[in-house]
Structures are given as C-alpha cells and as structure tokens.
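Run folding on both entries below.
>entry_1
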Amino acid sequence: MPKVTIDGIEIEVPDGTTILNAARMIGGKIVPPAMCYYSKLKTTGGYCRTCLVKVVQGSAKDPRPMPKLMVSCSTTVQDGMVVQNITSPEVMEARRGVVEFLLINHPLDCPICDQAGECKLQDLGYEHGLQKTRYEFPRRTFEKEDIGDKIKLHMTRCILCYRCVKVAEQLTPKRVHGVMNRGDVAEISTYIKNSIDNDFSGNMIDVCPVGALTDKTFRFQSRVWYVKPMDAHRDCKKCSGKVVVWMKDEEILRVTARMDKNNEVEEFICNECRFEKKDPADWVIEKPTHIDRHSVIAQNHYEDEKQLQLGKFTDPKMIPKAEPKLKK
C-alpha cells in the first residue's frame, strides 16, 4: 500500500486512492474543497478546479515535482508522494483565483437563497473570496425555470459542476436534461419544459452545491437554522427509506437524504419519500441528526447524548422542542 505525505502528515492508503480521498482519510483543514467531485457518482471531478494541490515529490522512485498544480480529485497517490495543500502559498493563490472565477456570474442571492447555510460556495467565498469584484462586464442572467413539478432551476446561480447531470445519467432510466451550448452561454436545461419526472430526480437537489436546484415544496418556508433535522426511516419499496426530516414544531417542512462527513449523500432516496411523505406519522423518528458544530445549522440544535447512547427516538413526542420564548 502506498504512503503519501500531505501537509506534513503521512498516511498509508489503498492502491488507486486519489489525493483528495487520502486527505479525507486524514481529515481536518488539509482536505481540499471540492465543488464538482462526488464519490457516490462515477466520472465526476475535474470541472471546478477548487481542489488543486501542489505535488512537490511525485514518488519515491521519481522524486521530481510535478510541473504544475494538480487536480487532487483525479490524481492517484504514488508511494512516497509528497503533497502541499494549505501549506503552499501557490495553491492558496490559485484557489482564490478559482473562487473569484466561480463568483464572476454568481449573484448575491444569499439573503433570499434557500441554500444559505448549506452552500459550499458560500463557505469558499468567505474563506478565499475578495471583498469586491474586479469584473466590469454585465453578468449573465437566466429566467427561472420549472424543470419538473417539484424542482425549480435558477441557472443564474449554477456553476456547471455537472453533479445533477451525473445523477440523471446514473440513477434514472432516461436522462432528459444536460449542459446545452458552450463557453459563456453554457447552461443546464432541457429541450422540453417540465420533462424531469422520474422517481429519483429529487436527488439532483441534494447533490447541487449551490442554490441552482431547489425544492419547490420547501422554497421560502424557513431558514435551515430555524428547523430541526432528525434522522428518520420508513419501509419503502423504491429506496432505503433512510432520510433526514427537517421539522418545525410537529410539522415536517422538507425531507432530504442523509449526508456523510464529506457532505455527500449516503444513500439516494426516491421522490415519494422526499416530496410526498410530510406527515410525521409516516416516519419512525430515530434521533437528532448530527450537525457539525461549525455549521450555522447547529444554532439551537441540541443532540441528546443520553438518548443517543440508550437508543432511538421512536415517538415523535420525544423529539426535542425549542424552548418557549419569555413574555415581556
């Protein structure tokens, strides 16, 4: 098994592991950001360029550095490889440039966007973005479009990561949307409006890293930090039925797939579970979903450690509620 050193930390990984996944095994701040790569989907990666790293030693057999910054999501680890990520000023400068490029046409929709609080581009903009834009030309704009009875497309926000296209190719029997045109007029679209109606099309919403694809049944209902995400499951013939239900008091406002530590879907879910099962009686509520304490969603989100150790929440009445507001 090859050994790789990333930002001074050495790890042994299986053959065929990419630099990005090796960094994810280590964890922490040395993990390069990834806006297009998705480990659960094949042939992703290489589109956004946010995961660039510097390979200062190619391998133990060939210690020469690679001549340019490499895409970590598709570069395979070699034994003895030495990689720099956040320790390289060159990488950080390149990442700032990539983020500036991604934000050239991206609108300042954060105050009204449903993705706020869950948006990786928002995080990247905060970490690497400029305080103002140097772009002097008009930004490209598109009309909002319904690409299904439950999905709204804001192409103006899209960064062309191709994740939704990969979902359609690999999870559905027939893909009816894709990237039309090229260059600065490229866009996600369909030739026939409202044609995306297959059972797993809602997973495009979960994999979208920005607010380009949103759930029409949840739009403008609440900010994500005002609702309580709870792990839940049900018997479903189409998918695993393991989801996260986002609750406000006794009401389910939306249903999403469960995410792993890399913010990727663990198991894709069907549209019936996602859009049609909004009654708490339809679900077995297990426990509060684990939320990273650095996330804004963690505000007022308390995980009952005792319940997590003893068992699962099986009664909706056991779901922790927000503390009542004091009357003035």
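>entry_2
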Amino acid sequence: MNKKNELIIGFFTLSLVIVLYWGINFLKGENVFSNKQFYYAVYENVDGLTISRPVTINGFKVGQVSAIEFSSNNANLVVQVSIEEQIPFSRNSILEIYDSDIMGSKSLELKLNKGSVLAKSGDTLIGSVANGITSEVSEQFGSVKVSLDQLIISFDDVLKEIKNLSSTANRLLSANELKLSSSLENIESISNTIENQTSSINKIISNLKSVSDSLSEIRYISISENINNTTVELEKIINKINNNEGTVSKLVNQDSLHLQLTKVLNTADKLLLDFKANPKKYVSVSVFGNNKKTN
C-alpha cells in the first residue's frame, strides 16, 4: 500500500468521523457550527425535564437543554441551556419549565424581562416552574372527585331513606292487609253496582234534560205572550190618542188648554205688577189702634 492510498483512507475516515459527530449533534438538535452561549438556572424539581429539550421565546426555538446536574452545595438541580440565537436580554429574565404538549413533555421558555444589566454567557438566570396542563387537570379532577364523593354519599343516604320507607310500607301493608282487602272488595262491589245501574242513570239524566227543556220552553212562551199582550195594549192607547178619544188625546192634539193657561198666567202677572206698584190699594194699615181704614 503506497502513501497515496493511506492519505485517501485517512481523509475518508476523518470525514466519516466529522459527519458522524455532526449527525449525532443534529439528531440532538444542536448546531455544531453556531456560536453558542451557555446559561444556567437552579430548580428544586425539574418536573421531568430532560436533556435536548428545546428552549423557546414566545414559541420560537432559540436553544436547548444541554445538561442537568446536581448542585454541589445542596440537592437542587442546575440546568444548563445553550442559546444559539444572538438575542440580547437582561439578567432579570426567567427560564420557566412548562408543559409543551398534552402528554406532559417539559420544555423551557425564556421569558424576557427588562433590566439594565445584560446577561452574558455563563450567567445564572431565575428559574421557575409553570402550572402545566397535567397539574391543572389534576386539580380539576381532584375537585371533581370531591364533588363525586359527596354525590355518592348523598345518593347512599337517599338509598337508605328509600330502604327505610320501603320497610315501613311493608310493615303497614302487612298490618292492614285485611282492611285493604276489604276496602278493595267494597270498591269493586260499588263499581259493579254502578255498572249495573248505568242504564237507569242514563234514563234519569235524559228525563231531567227533557224536564229542563220543557220548563225553559214554558217560561219562554209565557214571557212571549206577556210581551205580545203589552204591545197590543200600547197600540190601542196610541190609536185612541191619534183618533182624539179621551182626555189625553185632547191634551195632546188640541191647543185650547194651552191658550187658557197662557191667559191665566198673563192675568196673574199683571195683578202682581199692580200689587207691587200700589200695595195700599190692596192692604189696609192701622196705626196705634186707629180704626180708620185706608183702601
């Protein structure tokens, strides 16, 4: 084997190693050619967060979790994240663990907060854990479970009351079985009697109806005859008045009585006026016992 073949084999092997390294990191979600910046956050509980989980800002991936280690001082967990995007943010920003899907997979979200000091590679940011979908569902399920337990207890109490009522009813039925049987027999006898007398009852109802119709007809005929008689009498009176028969017809049809009354009223009016003008003519006045009369 000459040197040329050795160089080719070595170059091919090196290329293969580079491609393999790049492929492994690519499958992990890392870009080996980017300028990464590393930041840290401390948590008491990472809640299932694993390495290679994405780091996002407003849903956009800017990096990933590169390592998770125990703290040397206590039992807290230190999470290292690598940020590939060149995004300036303050040291007051927060790395928050949240549920990225309904299955409960955890990811990190970089929440940007305002601040005067910008974060640099190697700084430790504030770590927090958000209430995920699973925790909210667990809380809701817990409240539903409590309500369901209360409902089951109430339903059990209702069943007990129904059972007590049933036993009470059974005791009452047992104690009054003879009376109930006798009552049912009496009801059946009454029902049979009514059924046998149905034809008689129908006849009585029809007779009452016919009597009522007859009474109504008689009353109607009597009223009608009275109205007819009254109408006839009124017609007779009106005919007499129109034919100048009787005093009423003379008062209505002749004006002589009106003329006489008018003369009497005029005479009385003149007499009253003369009395007012010459009262001494009609009245005699005696002063201090004087017997002399003034006409």
